Amino acid sequence: MKSPRVLPLLLALVKFVSGYLLSSPAYELHRDEYLYLNYGRHLAWGYLEVPPLTALQSWVTLALGGDWFWVKFWPLLWGSLTVYVVGRAVQRLGGGPWAVALAGLSYLLGAYARLNFLFQPNSFEVLAFTVVCYWLICYQQQPAPRWLYAIGAVLGLALLNKYSALFFILALVGALLLTQRRILATRAFWGGAALALLLWLPNLAWQISHGLPVRHHMALLHDTQLVNVSVGGFWQSQLVMNLPSLWVWVAGLVALLRSPYRVVGLVYAGGLLLLTLLHGKDYYALGYYPILLAAGAAWWEQWLQARPRLGRVMRPALLLLPVLLSLRVLPLLFTLEPPARMLALGARFEKLGVLRWEDGRNHPLPQDYADMLGWRELADKTWTAYQGLPAAARGRTLILTANYGQAGAINYYNRHRALPPANSFNGSYLFWQPVAPAQGWQYILLIDDEPDADLAHHFQSLRRVGEVRNAYARERGTVILLGIHPDVILRNYARQEHQRQLAEWGQF
What we know:
Elements: H1 6-21, H2 31-39, H3 53-63, H4 68-92, H5 97-108, H6 112-115, H7 122-141, H8 145-161, H9 165-179, H10 181-184, H11 187-209, H12 213-224, H13 231-241, H14 246-257, H15 262-277, H16 290-305, H17 308-327, H18 330-333, H19 339-344, H20 346-350, H21 367-370, H22 375-387, E1 397-401, H23 404-413, E2 423-424, E3 443-448, E4 459-467, E5 479-486, H24 488-504
Parallel strand pairs: 1-2, 1-3
Antiparallel strand pairs: 3-5, 4-5
Helix pairs in contact: 1-4, 1-5, 2-3, 2-23, 4-5, 4-7, 4-16, 5-16, 5-17, 7-8, 8-11, 9-15, 14-15, 14-16, 22-23
């Protein structure tokens, strides 16, 4: 008899390999990936954007050379493990190979194809939430203390990965209070909670010692992005992201709520309620769906087993349905099509709302795609500008960018060149500012998408030496300016701006 783990392992392998094969070389890394990769050069217990778990992955990636393969290795690994856990959850719920295949296809052809392609904290979060729900099911079947300790360990890692895990924990505690209050009285529950807190404690201490910058981060998110998220838009995105598996996860939610495992269904309900009320981004909810796919696939198999004639027709049809539904949106799931082709398909995608960016407006390309273009061009042109400087003055040259994407991309693509690190007053780069030479900066390479027209008054000379011209890039029009001999006003302004930004984050 074949091991029940074979099919989940096979689906995990398909997930891992497909992420590499179904990608166009026209795209580069994503804006956020450059920031997270820079974490690996500055290991700490916390950052202004997220906790430190991503930084550890970045450090390993850079130690291995930092190539594209290793950058994508982590999200694809977490996604593959999620598929495996989903398959095992199907089996725990009584499903056979057909149900495992159905749940696996639903995951492979859903929004997770895009999510698990980007080196961001989101892929590990999805895995962590899925594992916790799976172990809740295990505990319901066999109430051994080890499951609660394991849940505590994973939740501790989830808190070291992303602070939105707090919403999941609130939903989990609420679900337990409604259905399984006896668990809350066990020693293992509190032991697991203590383990989670112990794992998170170094980052929590970092947050407290730095004035809780997470508060400012959340305020920035609210004012610049979450304010544009409507309840209707949020739920429209839930349907679009999970459309190929709509009939699977909805059945799974209903089945869980009517089963001994309703605590898992209530975790979904509580988590989505919190995200709706707090205007969370649509993809914040993706960690709540994989376990519903497992429950839905198991339910469909059991329902069809009671109707053998119908099952002979519906089994192959239900496996084929996610494939057919995903065909029209395949270019949104995988970066298969280059930008020009994506632009031609824009009318189709506009109806799905995927062309709406964080500013609340529609654009020619999905934001993720526009955020994966123009970076190498920017980095190469910055290197060329630096090479054009007198060799004796390069030690007194500052590279200052307007945002973390620009700084991170310049550092990534020039990591094997003798270029000083690019800096910014944006995000965690506030911690990584270089010490000015004793004589001060003689040259400043300014990279900005909206340069101040008054800057020229503060340099002996200021001229444009490069510009991002990629027509599809979000950074199109970003200019590289070379300023010679900044005046004392500009130098003082830079120091003051640095201190002001740190103060906003609670650093003083």
